[in-house]
């Protein structure tokens, strides 16, 4: 009895987009992409300034990406859930890069201080003793202070790590 | 048991399979359901691919922020013309990939096979140009990391006598990993498209069922997308 009731129900096909792209739209998009590619290559002839060059290049690349995503990849006509998945992962990539940027700009002073002790040579990097040691070497041969690792004097870093300083300075990122 | 009851049982099979539809999974209500599910699946995969390449773009971004001069120097070793031709080749293959979906939707088997074949040909073209670029670099000793040992001619040609930065090898580490990984994705796309060509030849696809054509085209568009960003970031630095 239950079987007959199921068979009597009309069969609704779940909606999925049968939207067929027209040749005009496909070719038009491709032409747009080729024009933007020409623009990208042409833009290297003009110097907008070091930062702006990158911004211009990325803006053109983003425009091309929009054309590919919305039309070739069909997102303009698609269910919103797929759009959310895609743009959601873009948001996470942006988060990934920006937080890493914040981190590296914060530890820049320490990297610069370390670099100052390095002298690049063709054979490879060699650590050069700085003429003025930022850390007092008096008593460096004495027994290690309580809480310190027993590290031989020649292996102690010549540039103090933040943990060695009494108050790790909060350095504002310098504008470059 | 009456005859009618036996007929009703036979019509409603125990495994609820769609026995008249060879490419419709039994757990799906209908083709629309299967298509929507597959589409979500491929978009989730593409989301992962974005993050996959995102890690490398992050390395690029951070290192370029720290040492922009290395990137300006490094790009002199790259051929902008070959990069631009590769971009055009991939953009055209994206067009034919999108067109292949249209062909499948219209049930045009010959058109579908033609579009897939052109897409594969463009992919091979891209790999061929990449091979030319890589083999030239290997020949000149322009490799990644510790293997970076450029010949005097190559250095002269690129740097015009100016001494190069001591960290230049790191640019090429980034260059080879990013373009190499992208190339591996192109190869994966070629394999997928050959599989699709085989199925298209067997007449599997039509207006009711064209999911694989659509999904592999989506993957291919992502490969194109990654290159759209790689090209200006590596080849067009100034």
Characteristics:
heterodimer; A: 176 residues; mainly alpha; two-stranded antiparallel sheet; 5 helices; 2 strands; disordered N terminus; B: 238 residues; Four Helix Bundle (Hemerythrin (Met), subunit A); 8 helices; elongated
Could you explain the architecture of this structure?
The complex is a heterodimer of chains A (176) and B (238). Helix content of chain A is 49%, strand content 5%. By secondary structure, chain A is mainly alpha-helical. Among the domains of chain A are: 20-78; 79-117. Chain A has a two-stranded antiparallel ribbon. Mean pLDDT of chain A is 74; it is low at 1-10, 125-134 and 136-145. Chain B is an all-alpha fold and 238 residues long. Chain B has one domain (45-235): Four Helix Bundle (Hemerythrin (Met), subunit A). Chain B has helices spanning 3-11, 31-66, 68-74, 80-105, 109-140, 152-159, 168-201, 211-235. In chain B, helix 5 (109-140) packs antiparallel against helix 7 and helix 7 (168-201) packs antiparallel against helix 8. Chain B starts with a helix and ends with a helix. Chains A and B meet through helix 1, helix 2, helix 3 and helix 4 of A and helix 1, helix 2, helix 4 and helix 8 of B.
Short description:
The complex is a heterodimer of chains A (176) and B (238). Chain A has 176 residues and is mainly alpha-helical. Chain A is 49% helix and 5% strand.
List the SSEs and their pairings.
The complex is a heterodimer of chains A (176) and B (238).
Chain A (H helix, E strand, L loop, with lengths): L1 H7 L14 H20 L7 H23 L7 H27 L1 H9 L1 E4 L2 E4 L49
Antiparallel strand pairs in A: 1-2
Helix pairs in contact in A: 2-3
Chain B lengths: L2 H9 L19 H36 L1 H7 L5 H26 L3 H32 L11 H8 L8 H34 L9 H25 L3
Helix pairs in contact in B: 2-3, 2-8, 3-7, 4-5, 4-8, 5-7, 7-8
């Amino acid at each position: 009895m239950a079987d007959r009731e199921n068979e009597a129900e009309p069969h609704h096909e779940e909606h999925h987009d049968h939207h067929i792209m027209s040749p005009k739209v496909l070719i038009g998009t491709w032409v747009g992409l080729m024009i933007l590619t020409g623009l990208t290559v042409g833009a290297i002839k003009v110097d907008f300034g070091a930062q702006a060059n990158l911004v211009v290049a990325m803006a053109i690349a983003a425009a091309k990406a929009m054309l590919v995503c919305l039309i070739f990849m069909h997102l303009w006509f698609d269910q919103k859930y797929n759009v959310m998945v895609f743009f959601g992962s873009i948001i996470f990539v942006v988060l990934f890069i920006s937080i890493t940027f914040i981190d590296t700009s914060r530890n820049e002073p320490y990297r610069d201080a370390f670099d100052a002790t390095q002298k690049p040579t063709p054979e490879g990097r060699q650590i050069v003793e700085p003429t003025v040691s930022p850390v007092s070497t008096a008593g460096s041969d004495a027994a290690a202070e309580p809480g310190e690792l027993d590290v031989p004097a020649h292996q102690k870093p010549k540039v103090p790590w933040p943990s060695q300083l009494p108050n790790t300075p909060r350095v504002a990122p310098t504008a470059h | 048991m009456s005859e009618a009851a036996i007929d009703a049982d036979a019509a409603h099979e125990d495994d609820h399979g769609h026995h008249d539809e060879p490419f419709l999974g039994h757990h799906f209500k209908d083709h629309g359901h299967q298509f929507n599910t597959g589409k979500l699946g491929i978009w989730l995969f593409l989301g992962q691919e974005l993050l996959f390449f995102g890690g490398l773009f992050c390395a690029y971004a951070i290192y370029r922020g720290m040492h922009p001069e290395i990137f300006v120097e490094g790009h002199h070793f790259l051929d902008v013309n070959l990069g631009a031709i590769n971009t055009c080749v991939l953009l055209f293959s994206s067009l034919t990939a999108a067109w292949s979906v249209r062909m499948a939707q219209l049930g045009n088997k010959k058109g579908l096979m033609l579009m897939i074949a052109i897409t594969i040909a463009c992919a091979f073209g891209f790999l061929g140009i990449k091979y030319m670029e890589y083999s030239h670099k290997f020949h000149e000793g322009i490799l990644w990391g510790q293997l970076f040992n450029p010949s005097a001619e190559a250095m002269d040609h690129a740097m015009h006598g100016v001494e190069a930065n001591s960290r230049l090898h790191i640019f090429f580490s980034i260059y080879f990993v990013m373009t190499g990984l992208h190339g591996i994705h192109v190869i994966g796309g070629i394999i997928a498209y050959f599989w699709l060509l085989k199925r298209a030849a067997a007449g599997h696809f039509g207006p009711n069922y064209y999911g694989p054509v659509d999904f592999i085209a989506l993957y291919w568009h992502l490969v194109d997308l990654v290159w759209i960003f790689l090209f200006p970031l590596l080849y067009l630095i100034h």
